[in-house]
Amino acid sequence: MLQPLNTDTSLLSQPVSDRILVVDDSPDNLFLVQTILEEEGYQLSFAEDGRTALQKIYQSPPSLVLLDVMMPGMNGYEVTQKIRGNADLPFIPILLVTAHEESSVVKGLDTGADDFIRKPFDMDELLARVRALLRLKHSIDAEQEIMRQREDFVSRLTHDLRTPLVAADRMLALLKKGTFGEVAPTAQDAIDGIVRSNQNLLQMVNTLLEVYRHEAGKKTMTFARFDCEALIRDVGEELRPLIEEKGLSLQLNNHVPETAAWDGKLIGDCLEIRRVITNLIGNAIKFTDEGSITISLQLCEAAAIAEAAEDLMMISIQDTGTGIAPEDQQEIFEWFRQGNHMRAGSGLGLHLSHRIIKAHQGHIEVESQLGEGSTFRVYLPIATAIAP
Hints:
This is histidine kinase. This protein is an alpha/beta fold.
């Protein structure tokens, strides 16, 4: 059973006693700091050089590191950089101890330290800075715990919602077939409406689950070579009943030249790219009442695209629909940004498309004017190998 998300930070697990790692090559300094901090109830561990300190940090991350700048072998700046460069470590406040001029302080803060104190330091000042950094540590830890709870809640919620929706979808399909007895013609329309509503809700839950997997870094992609034009044609055929129902026309133009150096295929997760194309064409159909939807493939050289390191395939999906307001265009790829249109959906599809294209080292953009339609452009690298 789902439990409500706990947003009371006072109830989140807090360390019984904060652990502080003191790093200094001077025994006198270590003894002085030990005397001051142990009287306040802090748990202490010590290291006399940078390498030993890093070993202890990697093995058991402390609540705070009190780090001397000048040490033999590896100085405090280098230790700070290595701590901040390790993505597997939680946030650990670093308080630099320095006897140098202001320039060394600037360098320390630039390398990732959170605060500094000069030698010889005042006992009250040292305790005040330690308490301030530990408050920062507790605040960040509490925020991350809330985020973890939220992600866990979304994951469990989508799974728990999906199970009865799938069961209902299968039961409705059997009902339509007459498995449980003949269905009166007057009830068929009602059943069809329930089926559509259930499938729309199931699609929303599935999309939310996919977004969660991307946001949590739990999405695994399978990269392989695929024919982009063939994929688009398959999606077009799949959506053709919706297009014909609204009396629209669909056209695909391939402007990619044939070259001996490239066979026209891309490397990526074909199913995920298909999800993006389906979402973009589906949106074009939804927001277009008359006219056409035109899909174009074009090769773009890296020199023509800002910040592009290699040539790109551009997939352009243009419609003659209602268009998107300028204020909505700025936020259209963010979480739950539905826009002001009455047909707007959950606000998840474009966000998920953005995450998928980003995972393929590409990008997506929109150009639109109200009443004149929209054009979505997807740019994917045509490199011979893309690391997932």
